[in-house]
Amino acid sequence: EVRLVESGGGLVQTGGSLRLSCVASGFTWDKFDDHAIGWVRQAPGKEREGVSCSNGNGKIFYSDSVKGRFTIWRDSSRNTVYLQMDNLTPEDSAVYFCTAGPNPAIVAGSTFGEVMHYWGKGILVTVSP
Fold first, then answer.
1. How many whole angstroms separate alpha carbon 64 and alpha carbon 117?
2. pLDDT tens-digit map of 2-23
């Protein structure tokens, strides 16, 4: 069973930065780079939003709401995906979930979360005004 563990969330002021990490484990018949790994966020009263995704073929997706402020990259030697979040605003406050699925999932754009097979428990990001 694939397991995803998020870290790096917390409280930050507007304009600040946070770096989220997601460590993936439990791959049996396939490898880390056979999977797209992405970040989906859920804020109270708002729809779930796929904010960024990276797949093992080098493709990357960013939602319009974070493009230019967030950066995703993966370290295959550590089975880890990072999300650097800069210039944060209160609108970025949410629970961020690490998700994993097949590499082609990235073509779904902001709805990639709907085709991901594995989810982490989520980590809270709070941006104060």
1. 24
2. 999 999 999 999 999 999 999 9
